Amino acid sequence: MSTVSLTDEQRRYLDHLRVQRRLAERTLTLYTEALQRLTGFASAQGLDLLRLSAHQARRGLAQLHAEKLKPRTLALILSAWRGWYRWLGQQGLVDANPIADLHAPKQGRPLPKALGVDDAVRLAEHHQDVTDPVIEALERCLVELLYGSGLRVSELVGLDLRHHAGSAGWIVPDAAEAQVLGKGAKRRAVPLGGPSLAALQQWLAVRGQWAAADEPALLVGPRGRRLSADQVRKRLKQRALAAGMPTHVHPHMLRHSFASHLLQSSGDLRAVQELLGHANISTTQVYTRLDFQHLAKVYDAAHPRARKK
Hints:
With about 300 residues, the protein is mostly helical. It has helices spanning about 10-20, 25-45, 55-65, 70-90, 115-125, 135-150, 155, 195-205, 230-240, 250-265, 270-275, 280-285, 285-300; strands spanning about 160, 170, 175-180, 185-190.
């Protein structure tokens, strides 16, 4: 798939998504792969992408089905194709969107995986005496921000020490908040709790040992430059293993844990929606299912009329 070259129009569309829509790098990678699939299909069939018909597009979808891709993967690929043809229409390059009526099979919406409260706190407070103090401060800080404020990993690595022209996000310690740029280039303020502020101060006290003099990023790696999302995932995985977590831990699991634990304590779905930066309440409502799952476990374990297994 990686050997398939993108067309000039596809590159322009991806640039549009990167610059205008500010899509995350991971999403851009998935969209690139989806467009490469489309280009490969059209090339093999001798088709002109700018004149692709709905019938020909259905053949492309059938080919994807034959690869036994999961419904979620199919949905993402079709979304990328549909978005590209919509953009082509806006540019006056096509008359109709051949992907408009193509849909992936329906899929059950999986519940987000969250840590239990005790495990999340244990991960945040985990400490190893043998660890380099700079590494310890960095890992403690990133865990506290992910779990304490519900940040996406892209929002986390986009944080700067302070606001400046072109900042995606920055911290405001005096106001106990961070300004972040979420999906759709929507800005929101997220609160920083006491443990997060303490972890920030601990990190800022040692950040200068790694950070390059001209580096604006809050979180940096040993080479002195902004920490990448992949580096965050790797460090979080290592910390979770060292802390004896019962499951693989990734950044979005801490965001799920933040939302689930907050909803369990407050019951305020709208507040959780605002803090997560969800455009639609329906996106946040998945956590009510997770909350009910938690309550059901409590009921099964404690109520005398619960079913005993």
